[in-house]
Write a structure and sequence with these properties.
132 residues, mainly beta, Deoxyuridine 5'-Triphosphate Nucleotidohydrolase, Chain A, 4-stranded antiparallel β-sheet, 5% helix
Length: 132
């Protein structure tokens, strides 16, 4: 059985398990098979992340980034790619399309309260932090 490991600290490379090249038109998306399935230990998840070079150069990214693979999932990993660029993008068989990071999952117990503790930020939303 082949073993997959990372040659860098950030994760495991996922490659396209295609029989022929796949061309994604601008704004087209596709579930691209990887040819592998995992048994992720309980208490962990797989996080599928885009490859930064392809995102910058071609606009190729993962539509639900990061995609989560739950520990109880046993099917083939498919990466939902989308072309956000202005030109068609070709994905060749065996080409690296994403990275997989295995990470621990923290389990929180939610408690209903009448009032939340106050903070300096308060209810300030997106873009609010760091402003004077």
């Amino acid at each position: 059985m082949p073993r997959y490991q990372s040659d860098h600290a950030s994760g495991i490379d996922l490659a396209a398990a295609l029989d022929e090249p796949l061309v994604l038109a601008p704004f087209q998306r596709a579930g691209v098979p990887t040819g592998i399935a995992l048994e992720i230990p309980q208490g962990f998840e797989g996080q599928v992340r885009p490859r930064s070079g392809r995102a910058l150069d071609e606009g190729l990214t993962i539509i639900n980034s990061p995609g989560t693979i739950d520990a109880d999932y046993r099917g083939e990993i498919r990466v939902i790619l989308i072309n956000l660029g202005q030109q068609p993008v070709t994905i060749n068989p065996g080409e690296r399309i994403a990275q997989l990071v295995i990470a621990p999952v923290a389990h929180a117990e939610l408690v209903e309260v009448e009032k939340l503790a106050s903070t300096k930020r308060g209810a300030g939303g997106i873009g609010h932090t760091g402003r004077a």
